[in-house]
Write a structure and sequence with these properties.
The structure is a single chain. Helix content is 8%, strand content 19%. The protein is mainly beta. The mean pLDDT is 82. The chain has one domain. It has a four-stranded antiparallel beta sheet, with no helix packed on it.
């Protein structure tokens, strides 16, 4: 199970209210406090194409905020992603000390 956090970059997998958001990147801006229309919303997400979590027009179901649940999101890898030292090891080894491939 993926754990999300405020400030994380995500890709929107689907949205019933705004189907055009499918595949779009965005940023989690806060936890949803109203638990959405269906009671399943977990996050307020600002899609990059909107710039905010407040929708530019009402959804098909009358919603005014993009507040998806975790199932609708997938993490995006960005510069804030933690990297292990093992994966970066070869960047710090001088050329003459690297193993021949």
């Amino acid at each position: 199970m993926t754990v999300f956090h405020v400030g994380q970059r995500v890709r929107i997998k689907w949205s019933k209210g705004w189907p055009e958001l499918a595949g779009e990147p965005g940023t989690i801006v806060s936890k949803a406090d109203d638990v959405g229309i269906s009671g399943a919303s977990e996050w307020n997400v600002a899609p990059d194409i909107w710039g905010t979590h407040v929708a530019p027009y009402p959804s098909k179901h009358g919603g005014g905020l993009f507040a998806p649940n975790s199932e609708q999101l997938e993490p995006l890898s960005d510069s804030n992603t933690l990297v292990s030292w093992e994966s970066m090891r070869d960047l710090w080894v001088p050329e003459h000390l690297r193993e021949a491939a």
